[in-house]
Structure formats: structure tokens, C-alpha cells
Amino acid sequence: MDLADGLIDHPYDVYRRLRDTAPVHRITGPDGTPAWLVTRYEDARAALADPRLSLDKRHATAGSYKGFSLPPALDANLLNMDAPDHTRIRRLVSRAFTPRRVRQLHEPIRRTADQLLDALGPHGTTDLIASYAAPLPITVICDLLGVPESHRLDFRIWTDTLVAPDPARPEAARGAVVAMLGFFTRLLAAKRAEPADDLLSDLIAVRDEDGDRLGEDELMSLAFLILFAGYENTVQLIGNAALALLRHPDQLAVLREDPTRLPAAVEELVRYEGPALLAIRRFPVEDVTIAGVTVPAGETVLVSLSAANRDPARFPDPDRLDLSRDAAGHLALGHGVHFCLGAPLARAETEIALTALLERFPELALDDGELEWRPSLRGRGLLALPVRY
């Protein structure tokens, strides 16, 4: 089957049919090359943690789907690495995303959220993506990394171009990559010349107990990944969560009556409408059997996070948003050694963003107009979310 068929507007219907039909499917990937798609929860969870399924594109055979094509200076990131390089780099950067460090960011995140809501005024209409869900995480992640405010709008434009590239304008995606490479080259040079109290300066200086440090391409690729993923995933988390609540007024009422339920509610919201339809592609280093299907070494394996998170064998009545559900174990942010490094920060931003929004606008509602989703087969996010308040 062609993976593109119906997935933009109706992904859960498509994945339900696939999941009900078979646990593993031979498909045509987003770029027209063949791949294998895993749809059921237990198989997906096992695949995400299977060390035989490599993220390193050097294990891919010719003609396999490989995902983004980036220059070497941006491609040496955690999404293309296995142990031991993945272990080393993740260890060097993980201190920036510990629960303690994330708790220290709660106050500035809430301050940014309040400033954005102040700018909207007490009543009116707005596109909640453009006015709130997008500027909040870009501000947070740029402050964390030490990106000057003057460059943040450019970065949003480049990222949006790469998240959902226009097939009719391939030069736009290439231009965005070139622009981002130049941006990070200049930014890292500036941080080396004048270190500051930010994550990029720390990453330039960091060494582990053995004296190891990040190579030049590793450093630039890591900065790109943190900024790109820290923005893209959280925009979609906040926007999708807000939409789900506005479409389910009974569940929204639960949170309004008891805001202390928000941390647990975020897990169910992420399970129900997460930011990624598919995990990053993987390549078997040897022939691998998944749910009785043998996938040859080097071919592409795609794991459907959204199909797994709505598998009734794991989550009863999975197409219903239920904030009282125990959604622990969902796969929206990955599983295993490649579990999302920035998950604590993304969760905190989503919780704080929703708390501030619901406190400020007790009559928040969807406005008229069709909702449009990003034309992406990997990510799940809205182009705009029109609301009135």
C-alpha cells in the first residue's frame, strides 16, 4: 500500500484498518521507496527497544527509505546513531534535561505563557498555533540554548519548511537546510568567542569523566536536533492537546473542576493525539522477525506510534479521550534507549501552557472554519487552530 493514502486527514482510520488486518505491512514509504510498517502495540514497543534495529543509515540497503537528507554537519545527531556513540553523546547532554533542571524552568515558562496571553487581550479570536502554541516553545528552547531573539522567527520558518516540505518547491527545503547550517556555524563561533550561561556554551565546554567531548559535527548536529525537536514536537503537543480538549467539553470540564489532574491528563492527551505518527526509521542489522514476518537486513522498518497508542489490546476503547485513563506506557515519546531526550521539558511546557490557557479563558471555544493538518506523514500537527475567547 501507499503510506500517503488518507493519512493526512484521517490517520487513525487508516491505521485502524491496517492494525486490524495484520501486525506488519509492506508499504511504499513517503519518498516512494519500500518499507515495513509495524502497527500493533506489543510489536511496536518491542521494535523500538530492539538493538538489532539500527538508526544508523549506513546499515540501509540501496533503495530503502532513509528519511531526511541532511549535510554531515547536521546529520551526526542522536536520531542517526546507535551505541556506543549514541550512549556517549546522550550522557553528555542529558544533564540539561534532568527533572531538577526542568523544574527550574517552570517559572520562566509560565512567565512566557502569561506574556503571550496578555498580548491577546481579554476577548476576541485568534489562531492559537500562531499566537501561543508556536511562540511559547520556540522562546523556551531558544532561551535554554542561548539563541538571540532576532533569529527566532527565521528559525520557525526554516523548521516549518522542513517539517512539511512542499513537493512542488524542493528548493525551499534545500534553502532551509543551507540557512540553518550557516546559522548554527555562526552561533557556535559566537559562543566559543563569548561563552554565556546557556546550554550551547555548556555543550562546547562539556567533557565527561574520561575527558571525552563532542566533535564539531556532533556539536552542531546536537544543537540542530535540540532546537528542531524542542520546537516542532512541543508546538504539536500543545496544539493537539488544546484541540482535543475543545472537542471534548466533558473532559475539559473535568480539568476546569480539578486542575491538579493536568499532569496525568497530559499523558492521555499525548497518547490520544501525539506529535508523531511514526517513529524515526530503523534498519535491521540482520534478518529480523517481527510478529511472524521476516524483514531482511538493511530494509526500512517504520513503527507507527499512533497506531500502537490506539491499539485496543493495550488501551481499551482507545479512540475515546478519557482523562481518568492510566495512559502510562504510551509510545508517543518513544521507548527504549531512544526515548525522547526532551520529554520532561515537553511535558512541562504542555502542562504549563494548558494551565495558563484554561485559567485565563474560561469560555475558550473553537471558532468557525475547517481545521487543516500539516501535510506531513511523520508529524501530527495543525497548521492553524482558530479559537474565540
TrEMBL record:
<dbReference type="GO" id="GO:0016705">
    <property type="term" value="F:oxidoreductase activity, acting on paired donors, with incorporation or reduction of molecular oxygen"/>
</dbReference>
<dbReference type="GO" id="GO:0005506">
    <property type="term" value="F:iron ion binding"/>
</dbReference>
<dbReference type="GO" id="GO:0020037">
    <property type="term" value="F:heme binding"/>
</dbReference>
<protein>
    <submittedName>
        <fullName>Cytochrome</fullName>
    </submittedName>
</protein>
<dbReference type="GO" id="GO:0004497">
    <property type="term" value="F:monooxygenase activity"/>
</dbReference>
<comment type="similarity">
    <text>Belongs to the cytochrome P450 family.</text>
</comment>
<dbReference type="InterPro" id="IPR001128">
    <property type="entry name" value="Cyt_P450"/>
</dbReference>
<keyword id="KW-0479">Metal-binding</keyword>
<keyword id="KW-0349">Heme</keyword>
<dbReference type="InterPro" id="IPR036396">
    <property type="entry name" value="Cyt_P450_sf"/>
</dbReference>
<keyword id="KW-0503">Monooxygenase</keyword>
<dbReference type="InterPro" id="IPR002397">
    <property type="entry name" value="Cyt_P450_B"/>
</dbReference>
<keyword id="KW-0560">Oxidoreductase</keyword>
<keyword id="KW-0408">Iron</keyword>
<dbReference type="Pfam" id="PF00067">
    <property type="entry name" value="p450"/>
</dbReference>
